[in-house]
Amino acid sequence: MSGTEENAGRIEVRAPMSGVFYRTPAPDQPPYVEVGDVVKKKQVLGLLETMKVFQKIKSPANGRVVEILPDNEATLKDNDLVFVLEKG
Amino acid sequence: MFSKILVANRGEIAHRIIRACRELGVPSVAVYSEADRDSLHLTLADEKVCIGPPVSAKSYLNMESIIEAARATGVDAIHPGYGYLAENAAFARACEEAGIVFIGPTPDNLHLAGDKLTAKLIVQEKGVPVIPSSPAGVGSLAEAERISGDMGYPVMVKASAGGGGRGIRVCEDREMLVEEFPIARMEARAGFGNDEVFIEKCILHPRHIEFQILADRHGHVIHLGERECTIQRRYQKLIEESPSPVMTPELRERMGQAAVTAAGAVQYFNAGTVEFLVDGDGNFYFMEINARIQVEHPVTELTTGIDLVKEQIRLASGGELDYTFDDIRQRGWAMECRINAEDPDRNFLPSPGKIDRYRPPGGFGVRLDTHLYQGYELPVFYDSLIAKLISYDLTRDGAIRIMRRALEEFGIAPVKTTIPLYLRIMDDPSFKRGDFDTGFIKRFVPDEEDEDEDE
Asked: What ipTM was estimated for this complex?
């Protein structure tokens, strides 16, 4: 599961391992989430592809997306900050 | 013989093919993506060409870039390895058009091998038994229900364009079929760009046994015995051996003949594999032809003494087959464990990273095909297969003992690997007896739960 850190309503969602980050379920589809979106706990925020295996990056809590740090198809390292949410 | 060969692959198989080139005295060209600059196969090749960015679609699957590299280095042949472009008929044709020999089957062979339904019909006409299945793409649920009812449950819904175990859904009964059929079509469209599916009878407690074949340009086809590939997880092979513990000389004779007939029926050329399912009563059914060198080819090499990659190259350059299986005499027992950078304790999640500690096994009866070295950083972009450990001895018991000892010797850290799983399997009484079916691995992997539920 994604690493998270909470502090004063700010939730950090980190990469569970290194891999390629995707914001969309498929190249021709819209992103899972945009900045400002209200999300539910366990809602899919993005995908991480590591050695041809896809993992879902899910929201650890109900909240709102404040920041999406990497670009689509960026290569992430283990524990890189991916999303910042505001607890809601 | 060729004057120079380009190896259009990466990892252990690129290394394996370049070794064969060196033994043949043919200069080789390695290709690599930007993520593979430190890859071991580059050190062994005579020349190297960067073919693009890390993502496979832009490098190892990039036909133009590879043909361009072949032209620039003046090679007269390309070996595609396995995966990537190995079974891509358009690539084989592009090589032909560029005046470069594709070391592998003909474009027509590749096309037919990818069209499993047609391939089955052709080999069935020649009297090779096939698994009962729907004759063509099944377009509606009503049709699927009728066909499944006729052949009897359980059935499998399979993507016509699928492969490598992907795009398969098992349905135990009518209720499940109703639920799974539309999903199978959606998956087929998403995964393979084609929503055609077909229905196949599910063979209970099957073993997966395949025959290695070789064919020359003059229509001579031979087989080199079987490989037992029953131990799989999610249709991905984990352990392979040759011979198979359930094989008898009579069954080998019949299946080998069926494999040769199947290959002949499709005018097959070069190395290939004919896959069969074998049920508990020794009935066998043709499944498909794999038109490539396979990951598990070393177990055949060790029991026959034939270097399959060198044979592929020799046949592609016009060489003839002047021997048969009877001339070779299969000898001893070989076993292969596919070592993946995956954590068996965490639902086989991949485990990329730097290899800080690397201590390869050796000694009597051990072969190791790998691209690992101390300090190598496993890229996140590619497959998790990091090594193939192969043991050989005169008996199956001996091969298991050597495998066990070699697995214990094999030190890889801190990356997690499937070595601990294989150690447990080598100690398992039913594995030692050779008594297993394709469901065997479930006893070692607690629960095949979805990664979704890993809270």
From this structure: 0.85
